[in-house]
Structures are given as structure tokens and as C-alpha cells.
Amino acid sequence: MYELQPVQPKRSRTNRNATAQPQNRFWQGFGMGVVAFVLLAALTIGGLLIGYAVMARDLPSPAELRQRASAFQSTRIYDREGNLLNETFDPNAGRRVEVPLRAISPYVIQATIATEDANFYNHPGIDPIALIRAVYYAFQEGDVVAGGSTITQQLVKRVLLSPERTVTRKIKEAILAAEITRRYNKDEILELYLNEVYYGNLAYGIDAAAETYFGKDAADLTLAEAALLAGLPQLPAYYDPYTHPDRAKNRQGVVLRLMVEAGYITPEEADAAWMEPLTYEPLRFELKAPHFTLYVRQQLEQIFGPEALYQAGYNVYTTLDPRLQAEAERIVREQVSLLADRNVSNGALVAMRPQTGEVVALVGSADFNDVEIDGQVNMALAPRQPGSATKPFVYLATFNLPDRPQEEQWTPGTLVADITTAFPDGANPPYVPRNYDGKEMGLITVRTALATSRNIPAVAALQEATLPVYLDLMRRFGITTLTRPDYGLSLSLGAGEIPLLELTDAYAALANGGQRIPPVTILKITDAQGSVICEQGTSRPCQPGVEAAQQVVSPVDAFLITDILSDNEARAPVFGLNSVLRLDRPAAAKTGTTNDFRDNLTVGYTPQLVTGVWVGNADNSPMLNISGVAGAGPIWNEFMRVAHAGEPALPFTPPPGVRQFEVCADTGTEPSDACPERRVHWFAEDRPPQPKEKDLWRRIRMVRGTDQLANEFTPPDQIEERVFKVYPLEHREWAIRHGIEQPPIEAVVAPPTPAPGELQLFISSPAEGATVRGVVPVFGSASMPGFASYELQYGITHDPGAFSLPFSGPFGAPVLNGQLGIWDTTGLGNGPHTLRLLMRASNGVQYETRVRVFVDNTPPTDTPTPTPTETSEPPTPTWTPEVPTPTDTPWPTDTPWPTDTPWPTDTPWPTDTPWPTDTPTPASEEPTFEPTPTWTPETNG
Fold first, then answer.
1. Which spans in 533-678 are helix H?
2. Does residue 930 surpass a pLDDT of 70?
3. Identified catalytic residue from 105, 388, 579, 808
4. What was the pLDDT predicted at 881?
């Protein structure tokens, strides 16, 4: 049966077109995408092909490649007299005898392939998987950190490409390696590689390596020897068998295992090679002045770049003086050998001309070829702690305090305290430096403090100058290594590391009137044809910038430091008059020794030459009780004497702006009439010595036969003048403890009408100098006609600036030979105290007497023989007290206290320090040791 179908509405033309339009757009877009992709692919492939073609087009022929690998002209380095020091050969070509592949041991070929490129004979010059991995990590890390280089790629890097580590260079390396593989056969590539690769210790190529390490030709190498050499090129210094034999042996085992895995040898052969003992040739380089030569080579690479340096055939004329260099090497070697029993193995020396900066001698170690002492490490360039050798620059900073008036600038006569001091150190505990000898000199001048190398005053100087000012000064002197952010006051004692060359250059600036010229090592360079490329002293210097002298400090300040460092008399209390720092001519010098005796130095100069010497161990192991004056000092002394032989003895010329002043020797001021010893010293004209009113030496009127000051009430026949070195209040206690007698602070005067025998005022108990504790009864007498009252007081220290309120009294009844009162000391701190008995008369005149005692309330121990521990008991006083007796007649004191010689309150005390006049035992700046049998210094230091 016919079934009716619903009638579909007739589509309009418009609807049909609307349906077809999206389909057409899709196919149109798809087609355009395909076309764009094809075009992009074509462009990419075309670009790659063009780039490949461009790179491949620049490849030399096989003959040219071999010529480029071996073609170079040696750069020759000469001393200042034209003697050849060294031929600098291209590390990329090397001094080598090229050998054909057939003249190389098969073991070497097999070991090299197994280690460096196991698929060498099968790939097209690149290992795609390794290359993709290297590129991936390069993008991830921003640097080429993964390997992937085949033997062919390594050859490309050495011969055709610069050494930068970039993705572009890695891609170029792969393209060139593929093209070389297409053009050259594998044996040619391997032969070139084995003649190019660096095996360490200046051995370039397998034949040079065989000769250097084993003293034989490459053809004669055994399996064990070949396996060791094949493992070196990856990290020659790290696997160096001379310095790291264990690493080299382990690396040899890795190579043997790889050879077994590659099927070149059997496990049994690998075991036999592993067990074979290897004997190495002594490592010696044909280098004159080796450390200096290598230093110059580094500078030449910076000037010209390595490619030009090693291929252009330059002739380099250096500043080295061959006679001085030979003497320096001999003296360092001989003196270090004399100190072997002190665990000293190494030394270094730098000598420069101050006016030109020319380095005339440089010794980097006692023996360049001795691997036991790390002889190839240049200790003249290695940063080490200089100890006290930087103290001159600390004091120099105080001569140039920024934003301070002239009168606040320090001078050679400024007084500093060589007294134990706790210096604030920010959030850290206070810094309490000690002197090398553990002693203190009291108040001394800057001249004495620097010349005798005292530590405490140097720290005080740095605190005054501030760290930023000091660090800025050191940078201007050419010191580049003081860059840590956490330096403290210990930097004044040489806690920062500085290379010997930089420190010597800084001293050269002092010798050159405060003008610094950076070290100069190259005088002239010519090309292979003899044409001058550069020359010092012309418009084309070889080391740009080193000729322009920079005025680091004023000539005046540089001269003042030089004058101190050359003052043999000033340093004599520590070093003696005939120490190794003294020459037969004016010479400025300073020593330095670091903690645990790990480094010691001597740096010093004449107007003609500056020399710095370091002695120690390259591995930083400590020496045995040897200081800068005993270790480095003899080297400095002998070299300076040899270097100056036949030269005139020149003085240090004072610059304009300085003049000589007569000063009191140990206080640095204009001498008062009480000054016992005078000197004539140099000062800046605008910073003269302090006036005589500030001299610590004073003539003071005293009551004859007593320790009391006199005044207008004292009968003339009872007055005598005595000379005191009067310390400021803050240091009086120190002076008294060290036997430097001090006058009393307050004066007592005679009563207007005293009747002999009627006035009784004394303390009989406790006695002068007694030690008291707990509750102390005080006995004595306080009686006189017209008596009004008496009271007892105490003060802290033996020269208190003030006294307590009465702890007993006032009492209105006199006492004769009885108990005056009770003194409860239980709440007081341990240490020196002064007990004062004060009596008043009805007319208002008051009288006093004092007793100096020590309070010690330390609890007793439970055991009869306690273990020794630190206590707070002070040292025994060094004075001989005069204890008052009942027959003494104390003198009354008016208020205010009239005196003829008052304590100088109108003149501010200097913040510095003078020298005790008791002729203290000469201290040793550093631990003592008589250095050599060549002389006997008066004092050790």
C-alpha cells in the first residue's frame, strides 16, 4: 500500500548557500594551512640547508685542517735584559711531536674510544641522543651542563671554534662535526684528536703525555699506562696523578671497566693492568721565574685573547730583573729550609720599584716543582691573612678622619690606651683584644703603638676611624679582596685576606709619597716582525691604566707613617735595636703574624725598593711558634741587603707641609718642664703636637713626707715638689696597679691654729691594703679642739671620684682609740675600695684621712683544697702605702679645695695614651723564636 510521505518544504537557494559556506571555509582554511606549513617547512629546511652550507663552505680541506691544528708561532717572554724566560706555546696546539696513528699504542686508541666515544666508528660525527639531551639541559639550565660531544665534536671545539658555552655554538659544533665526518675518514679524525688533546701538566698530545708522565714514546705505552692517560682529558687537574694519585687511580679503573664492556680487553687483563704499579717521571717544567712567567701569561691572555697570544709570535719584554729574581729564589729556598723543624715548607716574595710599580722579582713558592708543598700554587697571588702588616693603614685612616676638624685628626703623637678594653661590637659580645705578649704598656703614643705593633691600640684606632672609612682607604690602595659584609674590629689586626702582591703594592704607595701605581710586569711587546705593539711610558702602554699614579693619601700622611715604620728606636722595646728590620740605610718595615702561626709576613721599603715576604704552608697548616720577624724577617733582610748592594743609601725625603717638633718622648706633647726625656719627631705643620699644658708629666707641690697635696695653708717648710706622670681618671686605677705613682685628687691643708698633738684623726683598723669582707668594725680616733662631728664614708676604687653618703655617723662625740663605726660590705662588689673618715670642726673646717682596702666577699668553698678557678680577687697592689698613725697630723681641707697644682679639669684629657716611664720589660710583639744562625737579634719578636 502506498504510504503517504510528508511533504518537505522546498529549500531556498539562500539556505543551501548558507549550509555550503562553512564547508567551503573549512576547506579553504585547511588548504591555506597546508600551504603555510609547507612554506614554513621549506623555509626552515632551506634555512637549515643554507646555514649548513655556509658553515660547511668555511671548512678547510683535510690538509688545511691539519695545518690549522698545528700552525702557531710561539710567544716569547723575556726579562728586562732580554734573556728568554719562556716560550708560550698554544694550549690548543701544544709543544708536541705529532705522531701518526700507527705510532700510537693500540691500548691508547682502544682506551680513548671506550672512554670518550664508544660508537666512534659508527656514527656520522654526532651522537643524536646525546646532542638532544645536551640541548634540552641547556634550555632548562640556561647553560650547557650536559656533555654529548663525540671525539669529532671535541676536535671541532679545539681547532675550529671558540670555547664559549652556548646553544648556538653547540649546534654549530654538531654541523661541523657531521661535515668533517663526511669529508675525512675516521682514522684521520682520531689521529688529529690524539695529537691535540690536553693531558695536563703542559702535555698536549699523546706523545707529549707519554713523555711527561712515563718518559717513553706513545707507541710503548702499556695497557695500565694507556688507561691512566685516557682518563685524564676529561678533568686533567682533578685527576692529576701527581697531586691527586687516588683520584687518578680510580679513574684508571673506570677506563679499564669501559674497555672490558667495549670488548677490547678481558676482565683478567683489566685486573692485571689494575695491579700493575706505575712509576711517574719527576715533574719538571723548563720555566725560568715560573710563577712570574705564568702571571705574565695570564695578563697577556687578558690583553690579546688566547688565540692571538698563542699564534701571533709576540716578543714580550718584562720588568723582571734576572739578578734580583735569582737571589730572591735562592734566599727564599735557603731560609725556608732552615725553618723545616718549625713546620715551615713554603715562602713567597714580591719586590717592586715604588716610583714605577715595576715588579722586579716575584717568587711564588720555595720550589715550583715540589708537589708536596703545592709548589705550583702562586702564594704571591693567593689571598692570605696579613696579621699586623695592615696596622699602618689603620692608623693612616685616623690621620684622615672625614668631616672632622684638624684638631681631632690623630697624629704620631696622639695618645692611645694599651690597656685591656671591651670594645662594643654591635649585636655581638664586646670585643676584647689581647696583645701577643699578654702585657699592657698603658698610655702610649701612636708612634710607639705602631712601631711596637700593639694590638689593643690598633683596635681603638679602627674604632675611631670606623670600618667604612678604613675599607674605602684600602680599596684606594689597591686591595681588592676585603669584600665580605661581616667584618668587625678584628680587621685592624689583619683578619681579612689579602694577596702578597696587593699588600706590597700598597706599601709601595707609602714609599711613593702616597701615590699608587698598580703593579707593572710588561715593558714592551713587539710582533713577529719586530714592530712595537705597545710600550710602557708611551701613548700606547701595554697595561693601560697602570702608569697613571693615583694620589691615595697626602704626601704628608704617607711620610708620617714611613717615619714611624723607619724609627728603629721606637720599635726597639719589642724588636731590639739590631733586629732583622734594621738595614744599613733608612728602611721602613712592618711584620705580621696570624692566629695559630698559619701565616707570617714582613713588608718594608727604602726609597728605591719595596719588598714583601710571606712564609707559611700552602695548605694553611700551622707553623710551630714562629713570627713574622723570625720567619719572613730574615728573608726580607737578606734580600734587601743584596738588592741594595752598591746603591746609595737614600733618606726618606720629607715633603712640604711637615716639620720637626721637640716633644716629650712618651707623651707626644710639647715637653713640660717635668718631662724626663725629649725627642725630635716629624709632624704635619697643620697638626702639631699638643701643647705642653697637656703633657702628662707634672710638677706637683706635696706636703713633705706625705702623699697629700699642699696648698696655701701648708707651711712653706713643709712643701716639696715631686714629679708625677698623671693619668686621666679613667686610667688612674690601672696606673696605680702597675706601680705608676699618682698624686691624690683632693688636697688637705693645715688647720689655721693647730696645736701639736691635739688633733687626732686616723683609722687604725682596717689597715692600709687590707682585704675585708662582711661586717667590718672600724677603729681609730677622731678628736680635736673645737670638734663638731665625724662620719665614715666609702668610695669605689682606690681613687674614687665621689664618696657615698655616711654609712656611719655623723656622730657628735669625739673618739680616741676606739670604735668609730660599723661598715657592712656584704652588698658591695668585690674589688678596691677607699674608706674615708671625715671630721668637722666648729668653725666649719673639715679634715679627712683615708685607707685603701680590697673588698672580697667571695663565698668560701666546702673543701679544704679547692680546684683552682677564676676569682675576682684583684692583683696585689704594687705601691708601698704609708699607713697613718695616731701621731700623724692630718691636714684640714677647705671647700672648695684650694691647691697650687689642681687636677687639670680645665683642659680636656686626650683620648690617647702615653708610655710608662718605669722602663717596662721589653715585650714581644709576637711569639719568640731566634730565626737563623746568621745573626742574633737583641730581642725576639
1. 555-565, 568-575, 632-643
2. no
3. 388
4. 33
Domain enclosing residue 781, as ranges:
760-856+880-890
In the numeric block, which cell numbers belong to residue 718?
A: 713643709
**In whole angstroms, what is the distance from residue 338 CA to residue 336 CA?**
5
The residue behind cell 684583684 is 874
3-state secondary structure at position 192 = helix
Q: Which residue has the cell 691624690?
A: 744
pLDDT digits (tens, 9 = 90+) for 306-364: 556 666 678 999 999 999 999 999 999 999 999 999 999 999 999 999 999 999 999 99
Is position 875 within any domain? Answer: no
pTM exceeding 0.85: no
Q: Which of 259, 275, 291 is the last residue of a domain?
A: 275
Residues with Cβ < 8 Å from 49, sequence gap 6 or more?
Answer: none
The mean per-residue pLDDT over the stretch 549-576 comes to 94
pLDDT: is 749 or 211 the higher one? 211
737 inside domain = no
- Which of 91-105, 317-331, 491-505, 739-753 is the least confident region? 739-753
d(CA 893, CA 899): 10
What is the rounded end-to-end Cα distance, in angstroms, of the chain?
135
89's grid cell: 706555546
Residue 472 is predicted with a pLDDT of 95
Among 70, 74, 116, 149, the active-site one is 116
Helix and strand element counts for the chain (H, E)? 23, 31
- 388 belongs to the catalytic site: yes
* Alpha carbons 130 and 132: distance in angstroms, whole number: 6
Q: Specify which residues 600 forms β-bridges with.
A: 593, 615
Q: Which amino acid is at 860?
A: P
Cell numbers given for 215? 718518559
**Which residues sit opposite 614 in a β-bridge?**
348, 601
Concatenated DSSP letters for 308-366? HHHHS--EEEE---HHHHHHHHHHHHHHHHHTGGGT--EEEEEEE-TTT-BEEEEE-SS
Please say if the pLDDT value at position 435 is more than 70. yes
Residue 251 to residue 248: CA distance in whole angstroms: 5
Residue whose C-alpha is closest to residue 223's, from 266, 280, 193 = 266
**CA–CA distance, 636 with 613 (Å, rounded to integer):** 6
Q: Which residues of 223-234 are buried (b: 16+ CB within 10 A; e: fewer)?
A: bbbbbbbbbbbe
pLDDT of residue 52: 60
Q: Domain containing 800 — which CATH number?
A: 2.60.40.10
pLDDT, one tens digit per residue, over 152-199 is 777 777 666 654 555 666 676 777 777 777 778 888 888 888 888 878
Q: Which is more confident, 266 or 118? A: 266
Supply 132's cell numbers.
638532544
Q: How far apart are CA 852 and CA 829, in angstroms?
A: 15
pLDDT in tens, 703-716: 887 777 887 777 88
CATH of the domain at 249: 1.10.3810.10
| Per-residue pLDDT tens digits for 267-306 | 999 999 999 999 988 766 667 898 999 888 888 877 876 5
Phi, psi of 604, rounded to the nearest 5 degrees? -165, 170
Residues near 650 by beta carbon (within 8 Å), at least 6 away in sequence: 585, 586, 606, 607, 608
Indicate the burial class of 383 (C-beta count within 10 angstroms; 0-12, 13-18, 19 or more): middle
Q: What is the 3-state secondary structure (H, E, C) of 494-526?
A: CCCCEEHHHHHHHHHHHHCCCEECCCECEEEEE
Average pLDDT over residues 874-878: 32
Residues 589 and 628: beta-carbon distance below 8 Å: no
Give the domain CATH number at 647: 3.40.710.10
Helices 167-183 and 151-159 sit at what angle, rounded to 10 degrees?
110
Query: What's the domain count of the chain?
Result: 3
Give dist(CA 928, CA 576) in Å, integer: 12
Task: Say if residues 96 and 204 touch (Cβ distance below 8 Å).
Answer: yes
